[in-house]
Amino acid sequence: MDLKHQSRSRTIFKKGLLFVFFWGILLLIILFFLLLIYSLVSYSNYETVVNVLRDPEFHFALKFTLGTSLLATALATIVALPCGYLLSRYRFPGRAFFDTLFDIPIILPPLVSGIALLIFFGPFLGEQLARLGIKAVFSPLGVVIAQWFIAAPFAVKTFKHTFSSLDRRMEKVARTLGFTPTMVFYRVTMPLARNGIIGGIIMAWARALGEFGATAMLAGITRMKTETLSVAVFLNMSIGDMKFAIATALVMLLIALTLLVILKVFLSDEVRV
Predict the structure, then answer these.
(1) How many whole angstroms separate alpha carbon 268 and alpha carbon 18?
(2) What is the largest CA-CA distance in the chain?
(3) Are the beta carbons of 69 and 205 closer than 8 angstroms?
(4) Domain limits of the chain?
(5) Which of 79, 82, 210, 247 has its CA 20 to 30 A from that of 161?
């Protein structure tokens, strides 16, 4: 009995140490992020932040960023939904290769993605698009395209995982009840995938909101024209206006945190990212 008791005690002790280690890592990471945010806050002050909030340049950057990122997210959702569904449900030649293509914007540095977009919409197709009245290079449209290109793969991957994880028995039952494939998709599959879809949209929007590298390469860095919040931070840092840049970065951080926390709180029972 003593040996069994000692063995059980050792097992509990080892498990206890493991979870103490896990909790320690979690608390250290949380502390690091809190200190990171605090360091940014401490480097600015209330008066500077208020002045930034009143600045016309900040107003433009904020409205422009929200408008372009929301449009890019909507376009990413439109593209990602069918792509994620087909990649999760069907086996076809080249499927692994096509799936890998969606990883490219994720693994490549945004600057490299921006160069590829610049060549594509510039020397490669620029003249043809210009005849149609489409100008992507150094224009607000380029901002939307760059944000979409970077954000869409996150939505595709999330949607694909969501559709793959669904219990398909309910879809089969619906088919036996006379539902067409289209009816099954809209009335069964989409409601079941709602949580993951919302999560994918949030991920795509958050990525588009903070995009800088690809945007800078394709749309350029032009004040009050293609100036997103990220570009505003870079522009003011480059001319030595540290107060404006840090205050803008702080406001951007607070906006992102506030919106994401609100979404996670109100959709806590709906979203599992």
Answers:
(1) 29
(2) 88
(3) yes
(4) 1-42, 48-266
(5) 210
Separation in Å, CA 135 to CA 121, 143, 180, 225: 8, 11, 42, 14
Contact 110, 214 (CB under 8 A): yes
Look up residue 9 and give its two tokens: 């005690």
In one-letter notation, the amino acid at residue 158 is T
The pair of three-digit structure tokens given for residue 246, joined into one six-digit string:
């840090």
* Among the listed residues 197, 220, 212, 218, the one whose alpha carbon sits nearest the alpha carbon of residue 248: 212
Three-state helix/strand/coil letters over 3-36: HHHHHHHHHHHHHHHHHHHHHHHHHHHHHHHHHH
Q: Cα–Cα distance between 157 and 130 in angstroms, integer?
A: 33
Q: Indicate the pTM of the whole model.
A: 0.83
Mean pLDDT by 10 residues, the chain (273 residues): 56 68 91 89 79 86 93 95 92 88 89 93 88 90 95 92 88 86 89 87 88 91 89 87 83 78 62 42
**Residues 52, 247 contacting (CB under 8 angstroms):** yes
**Residue 121 has which token pair?**
């919409």
Give the integer Cα–Cα distance in Å for 9 and 240.
61
Say if residues 133 and 146 touch (Cβ distance below 8 Å). Answer: no
Q: Taking a C-beta distance cutoff of 8 angstroms, is the pair 76, 208 a contact?
A: yes
